[in-house]
Design brief:
- Helices cover 37% and strands 17% of the residues.
- By secondary structure, it is α/β, with parallel strands linked by helices.
- The protein has three domains: 12-78, Orthogonal Bundle (Arc Repressor Mutant, subunit A), CATH 1.10.10; 84-199 and 369-388, ATPase, nucleotide binding domain (Nucleotidyltransferase, domain 5, 2-Layer Sandwich), CATH 3.30.420; 208-363, Nucleotidyltransferase, domain 5 (2-Layer Sandwich), CATH 3.30.420.40.
- Helix 1 (12-22) crosses helix 3, helix 6 packs across helix 12 and helix 9 crosses helix 10.
């Protein structure tokens, strides 16, 4: 079992709890084999963890039909409802919250659309508070049983949970959430880093980027299995793309698609009676409308897809050249619509002009990639040192929303 940081060796209760977090139901014998502890030590640790609320003692192996000769083995299992975690995606335009148990099973979800109000700090904090409260009420769950809440934001975050002052935007995105969300511990993290956590593969030595590509480009970077952060949490912030020839800004695929189509409409290149023309006229232009029009054969939209594919290829080449990554996962809500753009980018990369060439794939997590990563990081935080958390008894609760 891994040694805990700051302690020369884990206590027997910590060691057994690590085992319980990693497996389903287990016997004392199985825990002995996994941990190297003696039977008496394992049994004492299990009794301690049952008393603290972490474990449940199950029917013995004979009663469960798994044991027939000799003394029946005592069986234990992590109580997944012993505590809760909350994950929040606090974007500029949308807030989403998940409530999950200690196995990561999502118990409830809630969402709030901020529209154009996301830069107002008071509105932002209220939206996060009410969205989390609504998810807890849907569960239903007592806020006092939340061990960790992780909040993902579109800004770099340092080790203290603070964001650099960039003149206003980053600080508005990270105004301080401790007072408005529940949890014995509140963790604030960059949204692209959370996307990378959500997309992490089974290989512990993977090198890849999770590229949020909707309104802006931002990357969660994993090299040799390690999430890169930087001293100020700025690793993966891609504002420098404005200096890259053929890219020109950190605007993501969604923003770039709207900008290109709007320019074409203003130049009179889009007929008003086409689906794309009607979307422009209604003010309903989004990346999905552009990509659907391209799929239907609209020549302007098809040209935009080619333009975006070239842009995406350049961003991927930059990431691969700097970090020697193998894979770029295009993430966020736009991933479900961007298949043609990704295909075009792969075609550009396969032209032989660039080396190294990363694989480009679309995330399957859609708009929930950040909140999924937030839940995963909250669980990682609990599992890193679970006995520092005090559990509260489970009981139904009515959570006020408003």
């Amino acid at each position: 079992m891994p040694q805990r940081r700051g302690s020369p060796r884990a206590s027997s209760a910590e060691t057994v709890l690590d085992h319980a977090l990693a497996v389903a139901a287990f016997t004392a014998t199985e825990a002995m084999e996994a941990t190297g502890l003696t039977r008496s030590t394992v049994l004492a640790a299990c009794e301690d963890l049952v008393a603290r609320g972490w474990l449940t003692e199950l029917d013995d192996a004979r009663a469960a039909g798994e044991y027939r000769i000799g003394r029946p083995a005592r069986r234990y299992e992590l109580d997944p409802t012993a505590g809760l975690v909350v994950g929040v995606d606090a974007g500029q335009h949308r807030v989403a919250a998940y409530v999950a148990d200690l196995r990561g099973t999502v118990l409830a979800r809630a969402e709030t659309d901020l529209g154009t109000r996301g830069l107002d700090v008071a509105v932002r904090l209220e939206a996060v508070a009410t969205t989390v409260a609504a998810a807890l009420a849907e569960a239903p769950a007592d806020p006092d049983r939340v061990l960790v809440t992780t909040v993902g934001i579109p800004a770099p975050v340092d080790a203290r949970g603070a964001s650099p002052d960039d003149g206003g935007f980053w600080v508005r995105m990270n105004p301080g959430f401790d007072a408005v969300v529940p949890g014995a511990r509140v963790v604030v993290e960059n949204d692209a880093n959370l996307a990378a956590i959500a997309e992490r593969p089974s290989s512990p030595e993977a090198s890849f980027a999770a590229l949020l590509a909707g309104e802006r480009f931002g990357a969660g970077l994993v090299v040799d299995g390690v999430l890169l952060r930087g001293a100020r949490g700025g690793a993966g912030e891609l504002r420098a793309l404005e200096l890259v020839v053929g890219v020109g800004s950190s605007d993501g695929l969604g923003a770039a698609a709207r900008s290109a189509v709007t320019a074409a409409a203003e130049a009179g290149r889009i007929a008003p009676d086409t689906p794309l023309g009607r979307a422009v006229a209604r003010g309903a232009l989004d990346a999905g409308a552009v990509f659907r029009a391209a799929g239907a054969g609209d020549p302007v939209a098809a040209g935009v897809v080619d333009q975006l594919g070239d842009l995406l290829a350049r961003v991927c080449v930059l990431l691969a050249s700097l970090l020697d990554i193998d894979r770029v996962v295009v993430a966020g809500a736009i991933a479900g619509h961007a298949g043609a753009v990704i295909d075009r980018a792969a075609e550009v990369l396969g032209s032989g002009r660039f080396d190294p060439v990363p694989e480009i794939v679309a995330s399957t997590l859609g708009a929930d990639v950040v909140v999924t990563g937030a839940v995963a990081l909250a669980l990682d935080t609990v599992r890193a040192d679970p006995l520092t958390f005090e559990l509260r008894p489970a009981h139904a609760a009515t959570v006020a929303v408003g």
